[in-house]
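Just curious. Invent one:
>
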Amino acid sequence: MQEDILLVPYQDLSQWPNDLHLQLNQTQDEQMDAEFDVDNPAPGKLATAIADHKAAVATENSAYIVSRSSEYTEQIAEQDDIRDTKIGEATAIAEAMAKVASLPAMQQAAQVWLRGWNVYKPNPKSAYEAETTAIQQWYEDYQADADQVQAAQTLGITQIIADMVAANNEVHRLIVLRENTQGQQQNTSISLKDARTATDKAYKWMILCLNSYKVVDQDPDRFTTVTSNLIAQQEYYLGLVKDRQRTNKRVQVKSEEIGNHTYAVSSGWTWAKLAQENAKAFALDPEPSAPGEEPVVVPQRIVSVDKKAAQYGTLAVALNGVIVKPTDAVDVNKTYQLVAMDGSSSGEVTPVKPE
């Protein structure tokens, strides 16, 4: 009787985030490269499948880079704002101190620093690249001039300069990345969605070939290492995907009075936890007790604290007309409603009129 054979499961990656989808496929390619080489070549169809998968992943990588172009533009603007703010802070301090004759040491330091700065005088209103180059050139001279460095220390602007230069370096890095994406765009005619689909098809065939050879190969241990490593990589990235999904899930609560709203939910949350995290929307409300009896604290209800909801009496969260308990798990696959305490639809509740 043949023992169970360890096979690599095929993972459906169609719903994975773009970055993790690409990273898993790249990592699986690297593992194949580490396993098969000139001395230990991949057999027949598997070698072709590996090559096809690598080509598909390379195309996906190009499409992914192009898709991030707008993201780089936003990040450049953010870093540019930071460096412009630091330029304003440093120059404002230096220019103010240059006018204070009662503090000759500070005045002299300001004059020394401004003299070096004004050689290049980076202009926040200029183009990103021009401002970046001006700061780089100024900073190179600044570091080589002990008098300027000492002047900055006297003025107390050393950290401001460090922050400005760090932001400037980040602008430069992001500009290069954006230029690379624009270069890739000229060479990439396929969309990221189509590239992912092609990669998924190649990945499925590669795994199928590997498993087939593992089943029929006369040496049952030949592919054990690569199989185990591929499975371990899959499990690692599956964990990353699940972690991200837990933080991205949302539950919907419908209401005719306050409108429909969605709330972020993490794995394992109860309605009590959701209410705690959304204190402006929900609160724990004790069940009413009979006259003369001590108030009942448990079980409780999750009720809306929205000002609009208040005019309809107390509205509680329910699922299919049944009011949820705080200990109930939040099911993101279900749509909840706000209902009156008798379980009727909140839309059927007669508004409470002030006396």
Remarks:
- Residues 158-187 form the longest helix (30 residues).
